[in-house]
Amino acid sequence: MTAGPVTPELEKAAERAASKRGFWISSPAFFYLILFFALPLVLVFVYSFATRDTTGRTVLRDWNLSSYERLFSSVVGEIFLRSIVLAILTTLICLAVSYPFAYYIATRPARVRNVLLIFVMIPFWSNFLVRTYAWRVILGSDGPISQISQGFGGEPIRLLFTNTAVLIGLVYGFMPFMILPLYAALERMDWTLVEAARDLYADGWSAFQKVTFPLSTPGVVAGSILVFIPTLGAYVTPAILGGAKTVLMGDYIVSQFLAARNWPFGSALSFAIMFVMLLATVFYFRSGAKSL
Amino acid sequence: MAEAAVELVGVTKRFGDDVLAVDGIDLTVNDGEFFSLLGPSGCGKTTTLRMIAGFEFPTEGSIRIHGSEMGLSPPNERPVNTVFQSYALFPHMTVSENVAFGLLMKKVEKSDIEGRVARVLDQVQLSRRADAKPSQLSGGMQQRVALARALVNEPEVLLLDEPLGALDLKLRQAMQVELKDLQGRVGITFIYVTHDQEEALTMSDRIGVMNNGSLLQIGRSEEIYERPASRFVADFIGDINLMDATVAGADRVRLGNGVEVGIDAVGMKSDARVTLALRPERLSLYDLDEAIPDGYNQMRVRVTRRMYFGDVYFYDVDGGTGAHIEVKEENRPSVELYDVGEEAYLVWNPKAGNLVVD
Amino acid sequence: MNEGTAQGRLADRIMAGNAWVVYVFLYAPIVLLIVFSFNENSNVAIWTEPSFKWYGEMVRNSNVMGALRNSLIVAAVSTIVSTVIGTMLAIALERYRFRGRGALDGLAYLPIIIPDVTMAVMLLIFFFQAFGIINDLIGVQLKTGLGTITLAHIAFSISFVAVVVRARIAQLDSSLEEAAADLYANRWQAFRRVTLPLIAPGVAGGALLALTVSLDDVVVTQFVSGSGATTLPVYVFGLVRRGVTPLINAVSTVMLVASMFLVAVSLIFQRGAEVRGAIPTDAESLLREMTDG
Known about the structure:
The complex is a heterotrimer.
Chain A: H1 8-47, E1 51-52, E2 58-59, H2 66-71, H3 74-106, H4 110-125, H5 128-139, H6 144-151, H7 163-187, H8 192-199, H9 204-215, H10 217-232, H11 236-241, H12 249-258, H13 263-286
Antiparallel strand pairs in A: 1-2
Chain B: E1 6-15, E2 19-29, E3 34-38, H1 45-53, E4 60-65, E5 68-69, E6 80-83, H2 95-105, H3 110-123, H4 139-151, E7 157-161, H5 169-186, E8 189-194, H6 197-203, E9 206-211, E10 214-220, H7 221-226, H8 231-236, E11 241-247, E12 252-255, E13 260-262, E14 273-278, E15 284-286, E16 297-308, E17 312-318, E18 325-330, E19 343-348, E20 354-356
Helix pairs in contact in B: 2-3, 2-4, 3-4
Chain C: H1 6-37, H2 53-60, H3 62-95, H4 101-113, H5 116-138, H6 146-171, H7 174-182, H8 187-216, H9 219-225, H10 232-242, H11 246-275, H12 283-291
Helix pairs in contact in C: 1-11, 2-11, 3-6, 3-8, 3-10, 4-6, 5-9, 6-8, 6-9, 6-12, 7-8, 8-11
């Protein structure tokens, strides 16, 4: 420590020392993420331009755009469209059901709220695979739903392996991701604004429409992103609940690496889907959110 | 001559390239003094305090505590302690643990620590809450814990950053008295940052008024109040009447309405433009036919407003000087009341008020 | 917030009804699964009598037990490592300014938003390439297995831990750390005695999250484990694709109950911290941490 008066140079030196400390504290994370995340990401990008030889191996020369060209083929287009439609549907259904739910919780007294929230979080935290598998059991032609309909004299319902089954599974799996941000936004809202609206002659519905809902928009956007993005690339849920006829992006990508052994194409697909998701995220941040 | 407790020479703080928070301050705080840094929000007083404590380093300048240059010493190596605005009590520790923290860090003997903590808790009357957690205490009690936690370390200087801001009025006034007494008994130098000029006036031995990073005036409370050296200081402290005037001699100035009044103007150039600063309580209203004390200034005015404040009356009067003038009269039976529209003489002692040039 | 109007009361009742439906929707599959796991009958859908038969089978099944053991090992290691690294990252980002901080901030968020399929592909290619280069350089052919799985899990867990811990640090009054320094604590003492105890709930929350994502992961693990070791979710996933069996029900119930137990423990721990007078935490705060910075 200096025993003399401070000068601008000394002050800067002190700032630089503090700055270096910060860098060192972040360095394990920094190096780990560079090595096991950034670098792999670059590799995927590189692979997407590579070629696949006759034995199925990836050859890192003869760089070309054929994988990307194939992205625009009708097969891929169909799969991509199906995935997007499914993701949008899932998001909308989640939103429609979760909003009144979150609103209800947010408007209960504090102690009740805590209990209600804990009961939402328990399924949220429990194993995703298992929760999805449970629907496989339920929706089977021998499952409870079918049994109930048969009990009423109807036919065995075959919901399994259809798009509907996948939709149900996705809504089930990701609903908590919609509930929680919505709840957070509603809970932190200034409810005296609603009172002000009522004071200015608005009825319940108008107050909601013109005050509450607009103010909860960050929550709506956050929840939508948190549902849309994983749903778009979903693999496990369609694999368990969907059929061979309904191929979605997740499964299509996986098959390039396991079955079809076309790594360059798979890389291009992965990169494309990631690009779409990054766009969605940027849109989210632009809409004023400060973080996830 | 006793060493100054704290000495700042040419202290400047610049944040980034464009924010000049503190601009070349020279300041000496005497040993055992209760010194206040007073100014509006953003004037740099808190930044100055933080530089003395060591939470920020100056961009330039020297900070000496009892002669030792602080330089780039970190806060844990400085012989000062701070009472924070938010109290900054450690929420996961009890009152005793909070108070004992500094002694623990300085590796004082366990048995000594217990005794010293008990003594200081007694001083702030919190002995019975020694095992409570901060969240269980009221604002006033938390404030006293913060004080105890700092004082137990017997620092050379105690720094207080608007410690009473979060308390309600009555409690604040009670704490002001307590703090002043405490400082007198303990004898430690206090440097107190506040934006409340009443607080500064009642508690301090000396006050330093700051604005926009500069130290505008230092002096005893009476000096700052009675002889403000600049328009800003005059306006910031209490109510003041500021009248444009021109120097008309060594002991007179001419006001905007042409009337000449007596005031000490020694050393000022003739015809120089100045401001006459007069406190409302130094002005009186006299009937037009009343006898006026010898040598006093007088000016004919008309009452435009009268406001009742319980213990005093405030009058706005117009004498043609350009702006209305405020007069403060005690609400006593012997003091006459004037109605709106009435004409009277505005009377004051030429020794009251002063001239401000800036 | 409830209007006393008839319109308000009706809306409230509709929402309450909706809430009930949602809760039933969320829990019915779980409950059904647990119930069916005790079904004696090997035809999953037809209920005969309660029995522990399938749990016995599960314990005797060496594949299942092996996969379980692997899952626990990987989860334990990845949780510990990612919690330490993630906490350090959170501290650096919240309390320090340094060059590259902005870039690191962005980089740290990517693993959260990236789809797990892409992550799986990335790491597969990475290990493939890396092993090839290492083989060329020193002639040792590394294999995929528990090691690569653990490395992969750490890679995506760090960010999750960092988000949760950052939220906690942001809530922390920074003048507390200044007060510690003012009271003669050096940087390490201030961290150990003031910062760490106060961010502990956040660190625990981050660790729990890391544990959960590790135990949940299917795709990334599947890709980077190759024919080597396998974890429980991946093994179950393989079984499920071939059909529903009572064995799977039993295994699933165990996984389910275990994860629910973890949540309960963490929530109790949070309440404990709240009672001890640390920063008040409750379901809402934990939730807020996870969905908002």
